[in-house]
Design a protein that fits this description.
The complex is a heterodimer of chains A (461) and B (388). Chain A is an alpha+beta fold. Chain A contains 16 helices and 19 strands. Chain A has three domains: 92 residues, Uridine Diphospho-n-acetylenolpyruvylglucosamine Reductase, domain 2; 121 residues, 2-Layer Sandwich (Uridine Diphospho-n-acetylenolpyruvylglucosamine Reductase, domain 3); 190 residues, Vanillyl-alcohol Oxidase, Chain A, domain 3, CATH 3.40.462.10. Chain B is built from 18 helices and eight strands. Classes of the chains: A alpha+beta (461), B alpha/beta (388).
Chain lengths: 461, 388
C-alpha cells in the first residue's frame, strides 16, 4: 500500500479506537508478526478495538481501502491462522474481555472474544459448571481464538470439540454489518446454521465479537487411571476395546516412549520406560464412576496392559497428570530444539495403524518423532523436533508432517483435528475434499467478504 | 572489569532465544501486560521477539524498543509458565546492559538514580548522615564495632520504610543477637543499577566496596531486610566477586533459624487475619518460600490465609526491575491489581511481606486506590507477636 493511503487509514483508525490503541511503530508491529508457528509477516498496523461498533467501523474502512484484516486473540495458533497478511491490519481482540453472563438455568455463558479460556473455566467453576473444549493452551488462549480455530482438547473423548458447544455468535462482517447467528436457546433450527460456518473459519468470514456458549455441570466424581503398554499399537487397540464395551471416558491420552523418556530426563519422574502409557479419566456419580473404572481396568487387563494404576485424590490425580502436562515442555528442555507439532485425526479403530505409520515416516526421514494422542477421539499429535536456527531442519520436519497428513487421509482420517488449517495445511484442503468443495468454500467466502479482505490466504482461501 | 564480571550477557542466551516458540503461555502471567490490556508489545513474548530482532540485526535500539525493554519488573513469573524455560528476566537484564553499553539505555529516571547513588550512596539523594536516624526510635542500644552477624539495612528500610529497620533491630535485640551494622557508611547494594542495565559501577566499585567493608568487621552472617538487596548479595555479587567470605541470609531466614533453635519463642496469641505476599526477588529468584511462612505459622492465634496466587505463582507488586522509577503510575496500578485480585479475596485486610520495596508500592496502591489494606513487614508482625 502506498504510504499516503496508509497514513490516511491510520489517521481514521485513530479516530475510531483512540490513538493509543493503534500501534504503528516498526517495533510494535514486529511484536505482532508471529503466532506460535515459524511464519512471520510484519503488519502495516495493529488496531485494538473495544466494542463491536468499533470493529464494524474498522472493517468498513478496511473494506473501503481493500486492506486485509487478520483478527487475533492471544496469537497461540499452531497453524499460522493469526499470522498477519502482507500489508494488512492486525485486529487484536484482547481488549474485549468481559464475561457478560453466566446462567445456570439456561446453561449458557455469554462472553466477549478476548476472554481467556482459563479465566472462563475459573469463573464457571464457581457455579459448578464448565465449558468442555479444553485446548492445552487454556491458560493463554482466548475464547474468540478457540472458536475461530474450532479447538478441541483432552475432554474431546467424551465432549467433542468447540463445534458442539457454541449456540450463537455476534459477528461483524467485513462490510460492517453486525449480525447475530444461532440463539440463546439450546434448540434452534431457524434456517441455515451460520454459527457453525463461523466456528473454525479462522477469521476468513468475519470477526466474532460475542459468543453464546453452551455450558455443562461439573461431574460429581472423576477417577483417573494409568496404564502402561509394551507396544503403542496395543494402547491404540485398547482405545477401541473401551468403546466396544460401551464406555465413554472423559479423557483418554496416549504418551509414547519418546515423550516418556524426555519427561523422565527432565523431571526425573521415574515413569516406566515402556513403549506407551495411557491416562484415562472416567466421570459420573460417586457410585457409578467406581463401576465404570472397574470396567475400564478389566478391558485394559484383557487387552494386555502391563501395569494399571488408579488415582482418586486430587494430589494423586495431579501426579499422574504430570507426565502429560509436562510432555510438550520436556521436548524443548531435553532436545534443545523447537517443535513442529502436527495434528491429525483417524477413526478410533485405525489408531494402531496410524501409530505404526507415524513411526515408519520417522524412520524413513531419520527424524525422531514424539507422539501424544487425545486417543479417545482418534486425534494424535506427531511432534517433530527441529533446530529453529536451521530452516532446512524445519523444512525436513514439515516433510514428515505432510507425509503423515497424506497417510492419514488414506486411513479415512482428517488432516486437522483441532489446530486448524491456517497456512501450514492450506494446500491439503483440496486433497482431503476435492476442488469442487474448495470452490464452494471460496464462493461462500465471497458472499460474506466480496473483496476478500478477511485473513486472505488462510485455509487456502 | 565488566567483560569478565560473570554476570550473564545476551550472548549467553543466544541459543535459548531461538527456543522461544511464541506459544504465548507467558502472556497472562505478565503483570505489566495485564495492566496494558494484554498489549503484545508490553509482554514477555513481545520482549523476547524484540531482543531477538535486535540481536539478529533486524531492529535497532530505537526509543520504542528501549521503552518496551524497560516495561518489565523482571518478576520471573513468565519463566514459570515458559515451556522451553526461557529466563526472560535475566534475558531482559542482559539486554538492558547492552542498551546501556551502546548508549541507548537506561531511561532518564534510571540515569538520575545512578547519579544519586554515586553522589549520595542511596537512590533517593538523602543525606548519608541521616542513614541511621531511625535508630533513635529503637531505644537504647549498643552496637559493637565488630560481630559475627551484620545487619545490612538497605536504602529502602533506612529512608523510606523505617518500621522495617526498627522492628528488625528490636527482634535482634530481643533475641540477644550480637550484631553490627555499617552505620552511615552503608551504601547502596546496586540492585537497581543491575536491574536497569547499569552494571559497570556495581561491578567496578560497589560490590567490592560493600563486601570489603562487611568482611573487615569479621562477619560470618549477613542479614538483609530487602529482598532486592538479598538477591544482589546472594546471587549477583558471587558472580562478580566469586564466593563471598560470609553467608548471606534474608532476615526471614535468619529469624526462622532463631525460632528453630528455640531462641525466638512466641507465647501470647496474636488475633489477626493476615495473608502473605511473596517478593519476587525472594521467592521466584532465590526460592525462599517456606521460611517466612514457617514463622507466620508458628505465631499462636494468627489466622493465615494463602492467596490464590502465591509462592511461584505470586503476582509481582510492580516495584521491581526499575519499573517504579521508570513508570510510577503503572507500577502502583500493578500493586493495586495485586491487592484487589489476590489480597482482598482472602478476606484478610493485612498483608505481610518481608520486603520494604514491596511494602512501599503496596501501601501507595492501597492509599491511592482507597483499598483499605494494611501492608506490614514480617518483622513488624513478629514484633507484634512478641509484644515488643
Amino acid at each position: 500500500m502506498e504510504q499516503a493511503k496508509l497514513d490516511k487509514v491510520i489517521e481514521k483508525l485513530r479516530e475510531i479506537v483512540g490513538p493509543e490503541h493503534v500501534l504503528t511503530s516498526y517495533e510494535e508491529r514486529y511484536c505482532y508478526s508471529r503466532d506460535a508457528t515459524w511464519y512471520r509477516v510484519i503488519p502495516a498496523a495493529v488496531v485494538r478495538p473495544h466494542t463491536a461498533e468499533e470493529v464494524s467501523k474498522i472493517l468498513r474502512l478496511a473494506n473501503e481501502y481493500r486492506i486485509p484484516v487478520t483478527p487475533r486473540g492471544s496469537g497461540t495458533s499452531l497453524t499460522g491462522g493469526a499470522v498477519p497478511v502482507e500489508g494488512g491490519i492486525v485486529l487484536d481482540m484482547t481488549r474485549m474481555n468481559r464475561i457478560l453472563e453466566i446462567s445456570v438455568v439456561n446453561r449458557i455463558a455469554v462472553v466477549e472474544p478476548g476472554v481467556l479460556h482459563a479465566e472462563l473455566e475459573e469463573e464457571l467453576a464457581k457455579y459448578g459448571l464448565f465449558w468442555p473444549p479444553d485446548p492445552a493452551s487454556s491458560a493463554a488462549c482466548t475464547i474468540g481464538g478457540v472458536i475461530a480455530e474450532s479447538a478441541g482438547g483432552l475432554r474431546g473423548a467424551r465432549y467433542g470439540t468447540t463445534r458442539e458447544w457454541v449456540l450463537g455468535l455476534e459477528v461483524v462482517l467485513p462490510t460492517g454489518e453486525i449480525i447475530r447467528t444461532g440463539a440463546r436457546t439450546l434448540k434452534s433450527v431457524t434456517g441455515y446454521d451460520l454459527t457453525h460456518l463461523f466456528i473454525g473459519s479462522e477469521g476468513t468470514l468475519g470477526v466474532i465479537t460475542k459468543a453464546i456458549l453452551k455450558v455443562h455441570p461439573l461431574p460429581e466424581a472423576v477417577i483417573r487411571m494409568f496404564a502402561s503398554f509394551d507396544r503403542i499399537e496395543t494402547a491404540g487397540k485398547a482405545v477401541g476395546k473401551i468403546f466396544e464395551n460401551r464406555i465413554v471416558p472423559t479423557m483418554l491420552e496416549i504418551i509414547d516412549r519418546s515423550f516418556i523418556r524426555s519427561v523422565n530426563e527432565w523431571l526425573k519422574l521415574g515413569l516406566p520406560e515402556v513403549d506407551a502409557i495411557m491416562l484415562i479419566d472416567v466421570e459420573g456419580t460417586r457410585e457409578g464412576v467406581e463401576k465404570l473404572a472397574e470396567r475400564v481396568e478389566r478391558v485394559l487387563r484383557d487387552v494386555g496392559a502391563l501395569e494399571i494404576r488408579r488415582a482418586t485424590t486430587a494430589k494423586e490425580m495431579a501426579d499422574l497428570y504430570l507426565a502429560r502436562g509436562a510432555a510438550y515442555s520436556s521436548l524443548f528442555r531435553v532436545t534443545g530444539k523447537t517443535v513442529v507439532p502436527d495434528d491429525c485425526c483417524v477413526p478410533v479403530d485405525k489408531l494402531p495403524q496410524a501409530f505404526k505409520m507415524v513411526r515408519e515416516v520417522s524412520k524413513k526421514w531419520g527424524i525422531p518423532v514424539y507422539i501424544l494422542a487425545h486417543a479417545g477421539d482418534g486425534n494424535f499429535h506427531a511432534d517433530w523436533p527441529a533446530d529453529a536456527k536451521k530452516p532446512e531442519e524445519i523444512e525436513r520436519a514439515l516433510k514428515c508432517y505432510m507425509e503423515v497428513c497424506r497417510e492419514v487421509l488414506k486411513l479415512g482420517g482428517s488432516i486437522s483435528a483441532e489446530h486448524g488449517i491456517g497456512l501450514v495445511k492450506a494446500k491439503l484442503v483440496e486433497e482431503e475434499y476435492s476442488r469442487k468443495v474448495v470452490e464452494i468454500m471460496r464462493a461462500i467466502k465471497r458472499i460474506f467478504d466480496p473483496n476478500n479482505i478477511m485473513n486472505p490466504g488462510k485455509i487456502g482461501l | 572489569m565488566p567483560a569478565s564480571s560473570g554476570l550473564p550477557t545476551l550472548k549467553d542466551f543466544e541459543e535459548k532465544l531461538y527456543l522461544c516458540n511464541h506459544c504465548g503461555f507467558c502472556r497472562p502471567a505478565c503483570p505489566v501486560m495485564r495492566r496494558r490490556e494484554m498489549d503484545e508489545t508490553a509482554g514477555p513474548r513481545g520482549r523476547m521477539l524484540l531482543i531477538h530482532g535486535w540481536m539478529s540485526g533486524e531492529l535497532k535500539p530505537t526509543k520504542p524498543l528501549v521503552e518496551k525493554l524497560y516495561l518489565c519488573t523482571a518478576c520471573r513469573y513468565c519463566y514459570v509458565k515458559c515451556p522451553p524455560g526461557l529466563e526472560s528476566d535475566k534475558i531482559v537484564e542482559a539486554a538492558r546492559y547492552e542498551l546501556v553499553k551502546v548508549g541507548a539505555g537506561p531511561l532518564e529516571p534510571h540515569r538520575i538514580v545512578a547519579s544519586r547513588i554515586a553522589d549520595y550512596n542511596n537512590p533517593f539523594a538523602e543525606p548519608p548522615s541521616n542513614r541511621t536516624a531511625w535508630l533513635k526510635k529503637v531505644g537504647p542500644i549498643e552496637i559493637p564495632e565488630k560481630a559475627k552477624v551484620l545487619y545490612w539495612v538497605g536504602c529502602m528500610a533506612s529512608y523510606r520504610v523505617q518500621t522495617t529497620a526498627i522492628t528488625t533491630v528490636k527482634i535482634l535485640k530481643h533475641a540477644n543477637v550480637e550484631f553490627t551494622m555499617l552505620g552511615n557508611d552503608e551504601g547502596c547494594c546496586g540492585s537497581i543499577l543491575l536491574r536497569t542495565g547499569q552494571r559497570d559501577p556495581v561491578v567496578e566499585k560497589y560490590a567490592k566496596r560493600n563486601v570489603e567493608m562487611i568482611a573487615a568487621k569479621g562477619v560470618e552472617t549477613l542479614i538483609t531486610s530487602c529482598a532486592e538487596c538479598f538477591r544482589t548479595f546472594y546471587m549477583d555479587y558471587p558472580k562478580i566477586l566469586g564466593e563471598l567470605p560470609f553467608e548471606v541470609l534474608h532476615s526471614s531466614q535468619f529469624f526462622e533459624r532463631l525460632m528453630k533453635d528455640g531462641v525466638l519463642k512466641f507465647g501470647e496469641e496474636l488475633p489477626m487475619k493476615i495473608t502473605y505476599h511473596d517478593p519476587c526477588h525472594l521467592g521466584r529468584h532465590a526460592g525462599v518460600y517456606d521460611e517466612p511462612r514457617n514463622i507466620i505459622k508458628a505465631i499462636p492465634g494468627l489466622e493465615f490465609v494463602e492467596m490464590l496466587r502465591s509462592r511461584e505463582e505470586a503476582r509481582c507488586c510492580g516495584a521491581g526491575g526499575g519499573l517504579r522509577y521508570g513508570f510510577q503510575d503503572l507500577s502502583i496500578a500493578m500493586a493495586a491489581d495485586r491487592l484487589r485480585e489476590d489480597v482482598i479475596p482472602t478476606g484478610a485486610r493485612v498483608v505481610v511481606t518481608p520486603c520494604p520495596s514491596c511494602i512501599l508500592n503496596l501501601r501507595d496502591a492501597s492509599r491511592q486506590y482507597g483499598l483499605g489494606v494494611e501492608v506490614i513487614d514480617l518483622t513488624d508482625l513478629i514484633c507484634r507477636a512478641l509484644r515488643i
